[in-house]
Amino acid sequence: MITARAAATFQPVGRSVAVARAFVRDTLQGWGFSDIVDDAVVLTSELVTNAVVHAGTAADVQCLRYDTAVRVEVADRYPEREVPLQDAGLQIRNPDSEGGRGLVLCSALASRWGVEYTPAAKHVWFQLDLPERSAGTRAASPALPTAALPLTDERVRVAVIQVNRHAVVTRWNDDATDLFGHTSEQMIGKPLTELTAWPQTPGTGIGLAEALLLSRWEGTYGIRGADGRVQPVYGSHLRVRDTTGEPSTVCLLVRADERAVLQSPARGPVNSDAASGDRGKAADAFEVFIGSPAPDDLDGLLQRTVERARDMLDGDAAYLLLATDDETELEVRASTGLPSARQRFARVPVEAGTGRYGSARMPAVHEDLNAVPGAVPLLAGTGMRSIVTVPLKVEGRLTGSLGVAAEAPGRYSNEEALRLQFAADRIALAVESARLTELERLRRGSLSFLVEASDLLAGTLERDQTLALMAQMTVPTLASWCAVYTIAEQSEPELAFVLHEDEDRIDGIKALLAKLNPPAPEPTPGARIWTAPSDAAHSTALRASLRSLGLGEAGRPATGPGTALATAAAVGGETVVLPLVARNRVIGMLTLGKPADERFRQEILELAEDLSRRAALALDNARLYSERTAISQALQRSLLPPGLPPIPGVEVEVIYRAAGEGNEVGGDFYDLFPIRDGCWGFAIGDVCGTGPEAAAVTGLARHAIRLLAREGFGGPAVLERLNAAILDEGARSRFLTLLYGELWPQPDGSAILKVVCAGHPLPLRLRPDGTVESAADPQPLLGVLEDLELVEQTITLDPGDVMLCVTDGVTERREGTRMLGDDGLADVLATCTGLTAGAVAARIQRAVERFASDAPSDDMAILAMRVPALPDN
């Protein structure tokens, strides 16, 4: 049921949009529905713009009040004009088009909406449900019966508290004592902030200490009473001067549920003609900036500021820019009435030109922008003709710029500039306070981000993992998508990694970037703009759309317009490139991108630059580590035999493990090689120590043994000459234990071994019945004595026998004070009867690994030889 109705008609001129906004705002505030005013004004603005600007007809606006909702109807006189929708969905035809955005907003903000056609007009309407509000508030009282109003004591207590410029209490009345339990004697001389508690909602943009510095402010917070409980209160604060001229603040506080006692009535914009040239009326017109509770964050405060500034001067558009830290550039932080191409966080220089009209540091009035092209780059191509801009200053510093524009020329004069400047002066401190709060939060977050990034990057030396970490740290924290290019020496940039916050779009972006020439590897620090991805994405989307309409080139592969548009939306915003410079060389490029109509904040670019420096060093360290590891592994592999030669009638298995990360060969080594027909040489040794130094002696020993054995020397002669070669190394020489032998397979299925055990753990022989015994006697190790007298021992392996040779990494395996030892090895070998040589070696390895919980700290080599048992007759 309709309980109230208000209607008005607006002519097809640009200023009608602002007048229509004011009409809807005044109507809803007069009905007490200030909670939905902002949404209603935004939707009305879009729909009236469609009527009077795009359709070019008069617009009829009607506001209908119901018990639980408000309905606003906007009708134009051009019913033939189609609804700019695509099929049944709410998708805009062109990403850069403004058509249809009003209906998209309706679907997002309104409870219900629709379009109705008549023979003479088209009605677009939306409905906003009224939120539930606590009884007793000024906005809710007209619709509530008396019985529904809140109950109070015999009287409403209004606490009057006065604080000086340091927030110290100088006055505390009896009602304050009744409400909070603290007496005036207890509170006078104490800071009020000791008792205050801000609302529980995190992210509040303004604190009580800052609020007390404003000329006037209202809001809800908590006061801690004498019993320790926090009581929600609503306060109205007025800043005054006492008799000595010192500033102080008078606080009027009531219980939160009695806020209607103090809450200021909602105010709409006043008529601009009546307020021209009158500073007092200008203050009233801009009272909404101060009298209303501040938004919870900086963005909300700035958006409300531009909307009120536009309404105050009856403009068609408004924008607000904030200065960067060095005050050389201004960033777009809020706008209304401008097309989407005027992207948020777009940057313009402070000095846009010469003279009064080109400076952001002074108020400026442009009667006709067509007469001074380029004076306001932000408005180029928007259709705005006249504009007034004023600076936001705090303590003489430029902190921002506020502008209001109109489509008609000559709309503004110095009087409007003075009004806007007066308003800007009153809001500048609150904006700067919120900006500094946000900046401090960003800096703290940036520091934490960089610390975490450094830890992650330092935790890996793998190139591919470093690339993945670089991308994952930037998406979505810094950018919507990221691409990393790497540059090898004397080569072109190569696309190495691509990541998008939506995994379904990674392939499309990767395919798009693969078609583009990579950005130039310039070593200049800082981010630079790269337009190629967005240009290519929009061009691809356009061609796909034309082909879908049958207007494209024949024979071209079909690309779905939906996929092309999605890719264009994903990479259609600003793209920046940061060089990855390490050790005075460009080793790659970090490319960050935003989706369509978005730009990077200066703080984000500075953070990305810091990250790129750390990432470049991590990536170069990974490259150097990979190169050194590859070289080391190639050299180490040369110290191992290429493979085990087959020996007729004998099974042979070797297991080798080098201690230390990245080492394939250490102090332990083995070899098995043919000496002559029917004879094979084998060796297993242990150089004192591990790592590359031990590996060097390993190479000397292995190659010398092969050479001497093939020259016809027997076992003792081979080891004696090797001992002399080790001693010739001087300070680089190392002790060496070595078991060397010759293997002679026999026609009857047995095998003869001639061995020399020079200080090495004795070989063990396993018989088929499980008996384990030593197969040689110990002799002096190599690298100590110059004159060695070694003897050769002969062993016969019968069918089914196993010969096990190990290094001390096996026998000296420890767990605390326990050691595997020779006896423990013999016990394990005794369980290997009937196993093949490979199975024997594997069981010994498992026993060594399971003996202790820690990873082995010494090199380990296991050589198992088995003569197969003869088949049963």
Automatic annotation (TrEMBL):
Keyword Plastid appears in the UniProt entry: no
Keyword annotations of the record: Hydrolase
Domain PAS: 154-190
Domain of life the protein comes from: Bacteria
Pfam families: GAF_2, GAF_3, HATPase_c_2, PAS, SpoIIE
Entry-linked SUPFAM superfamilies: GAF domain-like (SSF55781), PP2C-like (SSF81606), PYP-like sensor domain (PAS domain) (SSF55785)
InterPro entries registered for this protein in UniProt: Bact_Sigma-Reg, GAF, GAF-like_dom_sf, HATPase_C_sf, HATPase_dom, PAS, PAS-like_dom_sf, PAS_fold
Classification via PANTHER family: STAGE II SPORULATION PROTEIN E, STAGE II SPORULATION PROTEIN E-RELATED
Name of the protein described by the UniProt record: SpoIIE family protein phosphatase
UniProt source species: Streptomyces fildesensis
Taxon lineage: Bacteria, Bacillati, Actinomycetota, Actinomycetes, Kitasatosporales
